[in-house]
Amino acid sequence: MTRHPTYVILMGPPASGKGTQADRLQEGLALPHVASGDLFRYNLKNQTPLGLEAKGYMDRGELVPDGLTIAMVLDRLARPDCANGALLDGFPRTLAQAEALDQALADQGYGINLVLDVQVPRDELISRVTGRRLCRACGASYHIKFAPPAVDGVCDKCGGELYQRDDDTEATAGKRLEVYDAQTKPLIEYYRNKGLLAGIDGNQPIDAVTAALKEAIEQNL
Ligand code: ADP
Ligand code: ADP
Ligand code: ZN
User: Fold this and answer.
1) Active-site residue among 18, 41, 55, 133?
2) pTM exceeding 0.85
């Protein structure tokens, strides 16, 4: 019997903890973590035309245009390691992206299985953004106060160097939250209407959020 691929979406505002949680969930789900922001940063690091085109939008805290974003993510989902599905993080972020994803999956006879919406209040998001540090080598997410590495500036998982994203300033974070409210929040209703949405309280310690996500996955998948 062939298994139907499983597509789980992690939704939530900037710095709500999607990347942190995806790292913890992907093993149990046996699904690759596909994060649109990581894909853009990878392209930027390698100076690809897509990365160079995306940079201006990212620096300003705006969304990269739908056409580029959709092509990049669908291309990633077509790779062999996504044969059983994927844990999507940061995509879709607009109605056009959500519809394009639905269409692409429907064309193959598939669909989204579950949307996990991680909710965190605005003040907490600003603290999380400004203290965030990322590993240059493996992309793992740390926080100078809330999730510090064992050794300052060094990744616990791979020994890589930690850095602060150019767009993780208070000003750009404010802009990203505005963009989230205007363009991404409407997707909550979109998926609720399809009966796919599970709301998660993301304003708890990291382990408690992981437990809540696992419970929602067990109940709904
Ligand atoms: P996202 O992928 O949604 O942008 P991250 O997973 O990178 O968010 O988390 C943003 C920042 O908040 C990181 O510095 C991370 O260490 C920290 N963080 C994540 N989850 C929590 C939590 N539950 N409590 C406190 N800090 C958290
Ligand atoms: P965060 O979760 O902290 O907001 P991401 O790493 O997901 O950050 O995204 C960083 C930037 O990459 C965004 O501000 C945006 O410019 C771009 N980006 C990521 N995902 C998308 C998307 N689905 N659509 C358009 N732009 C995106
Ligand atoms: Zn690392």
Assistant:
1) 18
2) yes
